[in-house]
User: Fold these one by one.
Assistant:
Number 1:
Amino acid sequence: MSDLTKLSANELSAELTKGSVSAVEVTKAHLDRINSLDKTVQSFLHVDDEGALKQAQLVDVSRKEKKKVSSLAGVPLALKDVLTQKGIPTTCGSKILEGWIPPYDSTVVTKLKNTGIIILGKTNMDEFAMGSSTENSAYFSTKNPWDLTKIPGGSSGGSSAAVSAFFAPLAIGTDTGGSIRQPAAVTGIVGAKPSYGGVSRFGLVAFASSLDQAGPFARTVLDCAMLHEVMAGHDPLDSTSINQSVPEVVKAAQLQDVKGMKIGIIKELGGQGWQSGVLNRFNEAVELLTSLGAQVKEISIPHSLYALATYYLIAPSEASSNLARFDGMRYGLRVDDGNLSAEEVMNKTRQKGFGKEVKRRIMIGTYALSSGYYDAYYAQAQKVRALIAQDLNNAFKDVDVLISPTSPTTAWGLGERVNDPMAMYLADLATLPPSLAGIPAMSVPIGLADEDKLPVGLQIVAPFMNDDRMYRVAGAVEAALKTKWNGLLIEQIPNLVGVK
């Protein structure tokens, strides 16, 4: 494996700035690795070799001409296939958008291009971000680089797998109910969901508009923070964008100090039904934080017990509305033999274009919003959502951040939960409360479970627009563990993915 693919984004930035390596060389190294190994991991839906190299050439020319460039200029990135990129296929992991080429860039992509970050391609995902395993993709299932028989999490499993397998030092995912944090946890990397409104949703194909938020993946906390600062900020094109300065997350990540911080353990997120190896690593992380000078105490978030039911009423309801635009009339797939009525075209197009999980959620959402059931289901769910947010806001009167395991278990086997939706949904137990409240949360690796030697993540939750607090804790934990959580051990990867 090329040495360049071993480096973190911060390390690559330093080498690129010194001129000891070119952006083209860095990009080629990562593309070569993708092209030789991703046929096994299957993290990418589309690799843009030509476009990535052109981007890299432009960065090299700018540096050669002594033009001012960002520190991350020339660093490669993998982009979840739910964000539009002009001229590049955007499918959202669905057959209904197969072959669709967006005519514009999302705001996040515009920021990446302006920074000079090299977009290598679009990563696989659960269809329209609905799932926790990336098995709901209409194209193929991505595999976890730690164990190719395991899931990489979801819905951003393609992005998490790409970073874990050293295909890119950075990636972008989206998090609706945990779809950045959970895949980060099960693939042994860092992933953050910014405060809702902290990153523009313009050009992000909507699943649940009041919950969706794009965020960064990386192999180190500092790398994650660097990408967070690039992609965040106010956007007048997004009515939900927050007109506030971006929290100083890079500075916070570099502090590596939690002395005097008050940290709350969420009482309801643990115990019976949670994997013992996950709880063991979590308890060790609590002890570690205490030894670093943090004041740790248990905090109750009583209404978090209803987060799962609340989320799976609100998110499908919003999805049933957002996905109504995919009707075979305007763009994407169209099923029509020339003799069908408009209603028949819509019916057959949606029947063929949408997968099983998407249809399930559309039906749940449509039912919850229907006349006679709106007040009983959707309206009640919104009331409970407000109570969950209230519980969390009250907790932050006593503590600076909250912590829990990111997921109740490590990565499960491919196919193990495909026919058991409830078991799949339970993977998001810990990540749902912060999503419903719109507050920032992230996952940082804290070790391997005793039973299966698979990664375990620590979830860190902060108050709204105080994203820097969670990076401060994550940076301290990472530094104290004295390890770089680069997914697999370098030497293991080629053998594990079947390349000698």
Number 2:
Amino acid sequence: MLLASTVLAQGTVEIEPNDSAATATALALGAQAYGDITTGVLDDWDYFAITLTAPTDLRAWTAPGFTGQIGDTRLALTDAVGNVLAEVDDGSTATHGYYSILTVGDLAPGNYCLRVRGYDPSTLGSYTLDVVAAPRGTYAPVYTLSPISEHAEPNDPRQSFGVNTISAPFTRNSGTTSGGGVDGAGFAIGGADYDFYRVIVPTPGLYTFSTLATPLTASAPLVDDTVVFLAIATPPGYTAIASNDDFNGGPYSQFTYDITVAGTYYVAVKGYFGTSIGNYVLDIVGPTAPLPTGPTSVTIHGGGCAGSAGTPTLGVRPSTFGFTVAPEKPLLGTTWTIDLANVPANAPIIRCIGLVVVSPLDLTPFGAPGCIIEPTDVTDFGIAEPGGYFWWQVPLPMTLSLTGLPLEQQVVVLDPAANAAGVSVSNRVACVGGLAH
């Protein structure tokens, strides 16, 4: 039974030195890791090794540590020897603040690493790292990309004798930037190399244009930074209607555009710098079938009754840096962590956990006035930390049928100084498991 599988282990703690792929701390898929970026002669980069046994959609994210939070991270996926395959700075600031969330679809089986670092060498502190391995098609659409190579230069139709490369939706276009011009993300920088692809859009819908797969699939040497444009013909020239330089803080580009009118469009790629010379891939995708959905939710209810250290407080860990967010959510395929504070040092703890609140138990007749236990289905036990806090972990399987799973939690603290019954009770936390923050 899912609830009976709850464990009291405090997660996977990084083992230093783990500043390279060769010394990475092993991390099981679905587990939560705890780490600390500390000062030193060089940047402290923490590596965690993971293994995929089947084609997988991967999602990983950082979140606040318990004390001394780092507040701002960068997160990368590397191959087994440390070559960066994808990297993000911030994720969604609405859900993660300056913490990072990274999603990569359809990864091949094999050994990989997740690399965590602070925003810069002076960004220090603690963090958590979650990693979820999901079936293909969970986080990213499943489709096949047809290969297309760029037309011989010049393939910028704004130049004399320039010819577009003929492309289409669901293609992987391979090209090379030759640099030139000044640095920048402009659509008409003199002397810069722009590679144009002509795309006939057969049906309206959401289309995605991306060079993010460049480090995964392009041959060396790789272009160091790209800019991607979507344009229309406005004779005698072309007008950009959308563009992206750096996606999620990384050097490569991606954007999604709602094309409402079928017809002919143009996608252009350039290197950001005048010295940006190298190979890239441009993926043109869309429209695709809808992905599975299922938002998570966490509701912190009031209540509880005081003990000798105050009223025990149960909840999710908020960020104390920059944004008031709590990225910890009950996401399928990961380990959901919930925090308990305001309890006596080393106090025994009983957690009450259930799917629903049926018949609350009032402990007043037993000598604990005002103490009410609401979920009473299953219990497990722990011992508080010397600092008067504790956190539990609930492993949630990556089973899509569990989307919408409710979970109720409350804690009873054995506290002889609290009252005649020798207990205090926390507030209740209700959550719903799902796929999205």
